[in-house]
Design a protein that fits this description.
By secondary structure, the chain is mainly β. It has a single domain (3-170), classed as Methylamine Dehydrogenase, Chain H. Helices cover 11% and strands 49% of the residues. It is built from one helix and 15 strands; from the N terminus they run αβββββββββββββββ. It has one helix at residues 3-21; strands at 24-29, 36-41, 44-49, 54-60, 65-70, 77-81, 84-88, 95-99, 109-115, 120-125, 128-133, 139-143, 148-153, 160-164, 168-170. The strands form four sheets. It has a four-stranded antiparallel sheet. A four-stranded antiparallel sheet has the order 5-6-7-8, with no helix packed on it. The longest helix has 19 residues, at 3-21. The termini are far apart.
């Protein structure tokens, strides 16, 4: 499938899902299954088959799922919503919730990445970066001053790159 036809399929899929899912906020391709797409909707996460535009499974997480990412290591789906990180197990669909500190401000996340090799999940909200150690459940916070505008993970080195308004910094 060419890049243009995949893009067209994703656009058509997104449009067809809007009525079923109410509001589609984000999507991430499952690295373990190139035909699967995790879609964050207004009620939760949906695992969608790109070829058929059918929903394989759903993890209903409540209102306000705002972002989703998938670990390249183990295909675990991670979602953020309502000051909580949610882990959706790729094998049995079970959900684990990790609350962020009560000091987390409102607003949409500007980035969510999963570092499966190091068992870390990062989410950026406002001027803060939150790191969840999935082995211990411990959440650490770092503040950057200016608002964080994006995150990128180098999966080879484990380095996290943080985009700010006028610069990019390495956080790990």
């Amino acid at each position: 499938m060419t890049s243009n036809s995949r893009t067209a399929m994703l656009r058509a899929l997104t449009l067809s899902l809007i009525s079923a899912l109410t509001i589609v906020t984000w999507a991430s391709i499952d690295p373990a299954d190139s035909g699967a797409l995790w879609v964050a909707g207004s009620k939760g996460l949906y695992n969608v088959r790109a070829e058929t535009a059918s929903v394989d499974s759903a993890a209903l997480l409540g209102e306000g799922v705002q972002d989703v990412t998938v670990s390249l290591v183990d295909a675990t789906a991670w979602a953020y919503g309502d000051k909580t990180l949610f882990r959706v197990d790729p094998d049995d669909g079970s959900v684990a919730a990790f609350a962020l500190p009560s000091s987390v401000g409102g607003g949409d996340p500007s980035g969510l990445v999963a570092d499966g090799a190091n068992r870390l999940v990062w989410v950026a909200i406002g001027d803060s970066l939150y790191r969840l150690d999935t082995a211990t459940g411990v959440v650490e916070t770092a503040s950057f001053g200016p608002a964080v505008t994006g995150l990128a993970l180098d999966h080879r080195s484990g380095d996290l790159w943080v985009a700010l308004a006028d610069e990019v910094r390495r956080a790990s």
